[in-house]
Automatic annotation (TrEMBL):
<dbReference type="InterPro" id="IPR053378">
    <property type="entry name" value="Prenyl_diphosphate_synthase"/>
</dbReference>
<dbReference type="GO" id="GO:0005737">
    <property type="term" value="C:cytoplasm"/>
</dbReference>
<keyword id="KW-0479">Metal-binding</keyword>
<protein>
    <recommendedName>
        <fullName>Farnesyl diphosphate synthase</fullName>
        <ecNumber>2.5.1.10</ecNumber>
    </recommendedName>
</protein>
<dbReference type="InterPro" id="IPR008949">
    <property type="entry name" value="Isoprenoid_synthase_dom_sf"/>
</dbReference>
<dbReference type="InterPro" id="IPR033749">
    <property type="entry name" value="Polyprenyl_synt_CS"/>
</dbReference>
<dbReference type="Pfam" id="PF00348">
    <property type="entry name" value="polyprenyl_synt"/>
</dbReference>
<keyword id="KW-0460">Magnesium</keyword>
<keyword id="KW-0808">Transferase</keyword>
<dbReference type="GO" id="GO:0016114">
    <property type="term" value="P:terpenoid biosynthetic process"/>
</dbReference>
<dbReference type="InterPro" id="IPR000092">
    <property type="entry name" value="Polyprenyl_synt"/>
</dbReference>
<comment type="similarity">
    <text>Belongs to the FPP/GGPP synthase family.</text>
</comment>
<dbReference type="GO" id="GO:0046872">
    <property type="term" value="F:metal ion binding"/>
</dbReference>
<keyword id="KW-0414">Isoprene biosynthesis</keyword>
<dbReference type="GO" id="GO:0004337">
    <property type="term" value="F:(2E,6E)-farnesyl diphosphate synthase activity"/>
</dbReference>
Length: 300
């Protein structure tokens, strides 16, 4: 397997799925749809929908049932980025190599676009009920379970809860316990959400889904710690956004608490643990394993 080629193919697939579900730019709400689509089409790794799709395939999923959830997952993620970039939060001017939504469309439009995108994500996920492959009772039960995961992992007990604690303590020294809480919710929760939904929609057992959650949790924290490392060692050209913002904003990160060497070692340990958990599950997982390794060593 040529990992880079496979990643390009799977990222392209995720991109096509996402485009299929974007709102139409017409009518009186045309400007809002344009702001939403500007943010959604800004590029990015499409990591979460790729994780969802690969987990779905790993457990034998072959229908298109996963597609509305892939799009919804990226919508939730993009909504969080739009709001993170606002002047009231991180006040960033660049995201993925181009101007952020509030810089292009104005602050009020960006707030509303983020709100609209979050709501539209759930509207998109509900579209799974209308698919021909969702006619049976067992499939409808899987969709219901997936929606429950989506709601919990993206809300106050997941991503938004982690963001709230992060914002409330912005610029303050954090304990390791609080930092872990922020990472587990602000970052890990969405990756857990993506992979758990993929597993549930494909018919994975409760025990298998719990193991996927554990693996995804480790992936999410490793991904965030690597982000901390890149904020110190990366460049704006590589990352497509400003670097050094953590230090500028006096932000507590894994690097500031543990140092660069320990942070790097933690990324490797968590990645190895995640791969170990995946190996205990059935199905083809060569690509997923390579994807985890690439995240551990990424430069952007």
């Amino acid at each position: 397997m040529n990992f880079k080629e496979e990643l390009q193919k799977k990222t392209f697939l995720a991109e096509q799925v996402i485009r299929k579900y974007l709102p139409e730019e017409s009518g009186f709400s045309k400007n809002m749809a344009e702001a939403v689509n500007y943010s959604m089409l800004a590029g990015g790794k499409r990591l979460r929908p790729v994780f969802m799709y690969e987990t779905y395939r790993m457990f034998g999923g072959r229908e298109e049932l996963v597609e509305p959830f892939m799009a919804a997952m990226e919508m939730v993620h993009t909504h969080s980025l739009i709001h993170d970039d606002l002047p009231a939060l991180d006040n960033d001017e660049y995201r993925r190599g181009r101007k952020t939504t509030h810089v292009v469309y104005g602050e009020s439009a960006a707030i509303l676009a983020g709100d609209a995108l979050l709501n539209y994500a759930y509207e998109t996920a509900f579209a799974a009920f209308d698919m021909t492959c969702a006619c049976g009772a067992s499939m409808q039960t899987r969709i219901t379970q997936a929606l429950k995961i989506l709601g919990r992992k993206t809300g106050i007990y997941g991503m938004l809860g982690g963001q709230g604690v992060d914002v409330e303590n912005d610029g303050k020294p954090l304990t390791r316990e609080m930092l872990d809480y922020i990472y587990e919710n602000k970052t890990s929760a969405l990756i857990e959400c993506a992979m758990m939904i993929g597993a549930v929609l494909a018919g994975a057992s409760k025990e298998e889904t719990e193991k996927i959650e554990q693996a995804a949790g480790r992936i999410g924290i490793a991904f965030q710690i690597q982000d901390d490392i890149l904020d110190v060692t990366g460049s704006t050209k590589e990352l497509g956004k400003a670097v050094g913002s953590d230090e500028k904003n006096h932000k507590t990160t894994y690097v500031t608490l543990e140092g660069m060497e320990k942070a790097g070692e933690k990324v490797r340990i968590l990645t190895d643990e995640a791969i170990g958990l995946l190996q205990e599950l059935p199905g083809e997982k060569e690509f997923l394993t390579e994807l985890l390794i690439s995240l551990c060593t990424r430069r952007k």
